[in-house]
C-alpha cells in the first residue's frame, strides 16, 4: 500500500528511496496523562535505526503524536537534520467520524511525508496555501495543499539538495 | 529577501523552550529562548524582536512583570502570554494590561499559528510605520537644526532662502537657542560652503583684543604683538564670518566694523597695507538690538547694515513640540560619544522635560541630556537621571511664594497658582492635581485673579 511513496519522494527530491523493516515504538515515548506519544522521543528512536548510507529517514506511525507545547502534531522533523516522522492517526477519515477512505488517506500521507522531508532539507513553512511546505494546522489545510513545492520553494529546495 | 520575524521565548521549563523553538523554527522564524525574566529583559534591550512569548508562571519575575518591563523598553512589542489551565484568570488580567493575547498550554496548533501570523502581519505594518517616522525625522532635520514646530519650520525656510543670496544676516534669539547652528547652516548651504566659516564671540574679549582678533595685527603693533597675525576677516576671505553677541561690541569696534562692511577693505592694527576681503557677515545677538539703538548703545547705521535679513530663533518653551525630537537627537549623540547603549527616555522623564521652562533653551536641554547619559546606569533615561532644576519645579515654587512675609493670603494664593500654572505649562488638569483643588475651582480662581496664559 505504501509503495507509491518511494516514487513520490524520488520525484520531489531526486534521491532514490526505499522502505525499511518495521521497528517498535519505545515505551518511554508514551505519555500516560496525554494518552499520546512524544514525537521527539520517536525521532530519537528512529535515528538509532538509521542505516549508515541513508541521507534522510522518515518514520510512519499510526499512534497520535504530540510535542510538549502543542495538543498534537501531524508529524515532526529535525530542521536541517536527518530524521522525520509522520503519524497517520489524524490523517484517517475515521478520526473525524467519517467512513474510511484509503485514497484520501494516502494522498494526505504523501503530502505530509514530502512536507516533513522538506524540513530535513532545511525548508521552512511557506505562506502559499497550495504549497506542500504550507503549515497545516488542521486536516482541512492538508487537503487544500498539493503534494508539490510552489515555484519559490522549488527554487529554494534546488539550492539545498 | 524579507527579514525573518524574530521571536523571543521566555519559559522556565527547558522542554517547553526546546519544543517551542524547534516548532517555530520550522516556520522560518528566528527564535531564541531564555529561562527567566531577567535574561528576557536583557535580550529585549539588546535586540529588536517582533514577538515575545512569555510563560505566565515563573520564579522571580513572572510573565506579567516581564511584559510590563519589556513594554517600558519597547512600547509596541507584542507580548503573548503562555499559560496553563489553572492560571487562565491571570492571563486574562494580562490582556487587560496590554498583552496581545494569551494561549493555553498545550497549544492548539491552529490557535497559536493564527495568533503568530496575525502579529507578524501587523508587525510588518508597524515596521513600515517606523520607516515613515524615520522619514519624517529626516525631513525635520536640516543639518543639526531639529524642529518640526511651525516656528522652526519657518526659520528653516528662511535659512534656505538666504543661503542662496549673499546678504548680511542678523540672527536674534535668547542664549542657547542655537544661533550659531543657524549661521553654520546658512554657510554650508551657500555657494561659499567650500570656503571657511569663521566664528568670533564679540562678548568674550575686551575692546582692543577684539579689534586685533577681527582685523589682525602687524609684528610689534603693541607690546604682545610678537609676530604678524591675520585677523578673522582675513581668515574668512571668500567665506562667512560669524559675529556672535554683536550687541556687546564697544562703540569703537562698532565704527571699525561698519567701515569694513561698507568698504570691504581694512588695515591690520599697526599696518598700512589695505587688505581687500570678500566676506559674508552673519551676526547674532541675544539682546534686542533695536532697543539698544534707541538707547544709543548701538549704532543705528551698523544696525541697518547687519540687519538686512533678520532671523528670529524662537525660545524652546515656544516650540515644546520639538523637545522629543531634540531629546532623541542628543540621546543618540551622547550615547555614542560616551559609548553607552542608552536607547530611550521613559515617559515620566519626557513629561518633565516637556513641562520645564528651559530658560537656557536648547543648550540647556543638551546639557541635561548629556549629564543624564553620563550618570545613567540603566539603558534608558528616567526621572532619576534628570537634574533637580528640571524635576522639582512645583516644590520650589511653593517655597519661593511663601518666602515673602509681607504678602496677604490672597496675594500668596494668586502667585502660587500662577507659578504652578507656569510650571505645568498651563496644563489645568496637572495644575489642579498639584494644588489639590478641582478643575472648576481652578478655573474660577484663574478668572478671579485675572491670570492669563502667556502667548
Ligand atoms: Zn512543517
Ligand atoms: Zn512554497
Structural class of chain A: alpha/beta
The CATH C-level name of chain A is: Alpha Beta
**Relevant CATH superfamily of the largest domain in chain B:** P-loop containing nucleotide triphosphate hydrolases
Mean pLDDT of chain A equals: 93
Order of helices and strands of chain A: HEEHEEEEHHH
The name of the CATH architecture of the largest domain in chain B is 3-Layer(aba) Sandwich
Write down the CATH class of the largest domain in chain B: Alpha Beta
CATH architecture of chain A: 3-Layer(aba) Sandwich
**Helix percent band of chain A:** 25-40%
At the third CATH level, what is the topology name of the largest domain in chain B? Rossmann fold
Strand content of chain A: 5-15%
The radius of gyration computed from the alpha-carbon positions of chain A, rounded to a whole number of angstroms, is 15 Å
**Largest sheet properties of chain A:** 3 strands, mixed
Task: Give a nutshell description of this structure.
The complex is a heterodimer of chains A (161) and B (455). Chain A is of the alpha/beta class.
Description:
The complex is a heterodimer of chains A (161) and B (455). Chain A has one domain: Collagenase (Catalytic Domain). In chain A, 34% of the residues lie in helices and 12% in strands. Chain A has 5 helices and 6 strands. In chain A, strand 1 and strand 2 (36-38) form a beta hairpin. The model of chain A has no long low-confidence stretch (mean pLDDT 93). Chain B has 455 residues and is an alpha/beta fold. Chain B has 3 domains: 6-136, Response regulator (Rossmann fold, 3-Layer(aba) Sandwich); 142-314, P-loop containing nucleotide triphosphate hydrolases (Rossmann fold, 3-Layer(aba) Sandwich), CATH 3.40.50; 318-449, Helicase, Ruva Protein, domain 3. Chain B contains 20 helices and 18 strands. Chain B has helices spanning 14-25, 37-46, 63-73, 88-96, 109-139, 150-164, 179-188, 207-215, 232-235, 251-263, 289-294, 300-306, 323-337, 347-355, 361-375, 388-391, 393-403, 409-423, 428-435, 439-448, and strands spanning 6-10, 30-34, 51-55, 79-83, 101-104, 141-142, 145-146, 169-172, 197-201, 216-217, 229-230, 240-244, 265-267, 274-276, 280-285, 309-312, 344-345, 380-381. Chain B has a 5-stranded parallel beta sheet with strand order 2-1-3-4-5, with helices on both faces. In chain B, strands 9-12-15-8-16 form a 5-stranded parallel beta sheet. Classes of the chains: A alpha/beta (161), B alpha/beta (455). Chain A binds chain B through residues 34, 40, 66-73, 77, 79, 119, 124-125, 135, 137-138, and chain B through 13, 15-16, 19-20, 22-23, 25-28, 105-110, 112-114.
Amino acid at each position: 500500500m505504501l509503495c507509491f511513496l518511494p516514487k513520490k519522494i524520488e520525484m520531489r527530491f531526486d534521491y532514490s528511496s526505499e522502505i525499511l523493516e518495521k521497528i517498535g515504538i519505545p515505551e518511554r515515548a508514551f505519555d500516560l496523562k496525554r494518552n499520546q506519544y512524544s514525537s521527539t522521543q520517536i525521532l530519537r528512536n528512529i535515528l538509532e535505526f538509521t542505516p549508515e548510507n541513508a541521507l534522510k529517514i522518515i518514520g510512519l506511525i499510526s499512534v497520535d503524536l504530540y510535542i510538549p507545547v502543542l495538543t498534537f502534531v501531524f508529524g515532526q522533523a529535525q530542521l536541517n537534520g536527518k530524521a522525520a516522522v509522520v503519524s497517520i492517526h489524524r490523517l484517517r477519515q475515521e478520526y473525524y467520524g467519517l467512513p474510511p477512505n484509503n485514497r484520501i488517506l494516502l494522498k494526505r500521507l504523501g503530502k505530509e511525508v514530502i512536507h516533513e522531508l522538506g524540513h530535513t532539507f532545511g525548508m521552512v513553512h511557506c505562506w502559499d496555501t497550495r504549497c506542500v511546505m504550507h503549515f497545516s494546522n488542521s486536516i482541512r489545510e492538508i487537503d487544500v495543499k498539493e503534494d508539490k513545492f510552489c515555484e519559490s520553494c522549488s527554487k529554494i529546495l534546488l539550492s539545498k539538495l | 529577501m524579507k527579514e525573518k520575524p524574530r521571536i523571543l521565548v521566555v519559559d522556565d521549563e527547558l522542554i517547553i523552550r526546546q519544543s517551542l523553538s524547534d516548532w517555530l523554527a520550522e516556520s522560518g522564524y528566528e527564535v531564541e529562548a531564555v529561562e527567566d525574566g531577567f535574561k528576557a529583559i536583557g535580550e529585549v534591550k539588546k535586540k529588536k524582536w517582533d514577538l515575545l512569548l512569555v510563560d505566565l508562571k515563573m520564579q522571580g519575575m513572572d510573565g506579567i512583570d516581564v511584559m510590563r518591563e519589556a513594554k517600558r523598553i519597547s512600547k509596541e512589542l507584542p507580548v503573548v502570554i503562555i499559560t496553563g489551565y489553572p492560571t487562565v484568570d491571570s492571563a486574562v488580567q494580562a490582556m487587560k494590561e496590554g498583552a496581545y493575547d494569551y494561549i493555553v498550554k498545550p497549544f492548539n496548533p491552529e490557535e497559536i499559528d493564527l495568533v503568530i501570523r496575525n502579529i507578524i502581519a501587523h508587525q510588518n505594518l508597524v515596521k513600515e510605520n517606523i520607516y515613515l517616522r524615520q522619514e519624517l525625522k529626516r525631513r525635520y532635520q536640516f543639518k543639526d537644526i531639529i524642529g518640526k514646530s511651525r516656528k522652526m519650520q519657518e526659520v528653516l525656510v528662511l535659512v534656505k532662502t538666504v543661503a542662496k543670496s549673499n546678504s548680511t544676516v542678523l540672527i536674534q534669539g535668547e542664549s542657547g537657542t542655537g544661533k550659531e547652528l543657524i549661521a553654520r547652516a546658512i554657510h554650508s548651504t551657500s555657494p561659499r560652503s567650500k570656503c571657511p566659516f569663521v566664528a568670533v564671540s564679540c562678548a568674550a574679549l575686551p575692546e582692543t583684543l577684539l579689534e586685533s582678533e577681527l582685523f589682525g595685527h602687524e609684528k610689534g603693533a603693541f607690546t604682545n604683538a610678537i609676530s604678524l597675525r591675520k585677523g578673522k576677516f582675513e581668515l574668512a576671505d571668500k567665506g562667512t564670518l560669524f559675529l556672535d553677541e554683536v550687541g556687546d561690541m564697544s562703540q569703537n569696534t562698532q565704527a571699525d566694523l561698519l567701515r569694513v562692511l561698507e568698504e570691504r577693505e581694512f588695515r591690520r592694527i599697526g599696518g598700512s597695507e589695505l587688505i581687500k576681503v570678500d566676506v559674508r557677515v552673519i551676526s547674532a545677538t541675544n539682546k534686542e538690538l533695536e532697543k539698544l539703538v534707541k538707547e544709543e548703545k548701538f549704532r543705528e547705521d551698523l544696525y541697518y547694515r547687519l540687519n538686512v535679513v533678520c532671523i528670529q530663533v524662537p525660545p524652546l518653551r515656544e516650540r515644546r513640540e520639538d523637545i522629543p525630537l531634540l531629546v532623541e537627537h542628543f540621546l543618540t549623540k551622547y550615547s555614542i560619544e560616551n559609548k553607552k547603549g542608552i536607547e530611550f527616555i521613559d515617559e515620566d522623564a519626557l513629561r518633565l522635560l516637556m513641562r520645564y521652562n528651559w530658560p537656557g533653551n536648547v543648550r540647556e536641554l543638551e546639557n541635561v541630556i548629556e549629564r543624564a547619559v553620563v550618570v545613567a546606569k540603566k539603558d534608558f533615561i528616567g526621572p532619576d537621571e534628570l537634574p533637580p532644576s528640571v524635576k522639582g519645579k512645583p516644590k520650589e515654587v511653593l517655597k519661593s511664594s511663601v518666602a515673602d512675609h509681607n504678602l496677604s493670603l490672597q496675594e500668596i494664593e494668586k502667585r502660587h497658582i500662577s507659578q504652578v500654572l507656569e510650571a505645568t505649562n498651563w496644563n489645568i488638569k496637572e495644575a489642579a492635581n498639584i494644588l489639590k483643588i478641582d478643575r472648576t475651582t481652578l478655573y474660577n480662581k484663574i478668572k478671579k485673579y485675572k491670570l492669563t496664559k502667556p502667548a
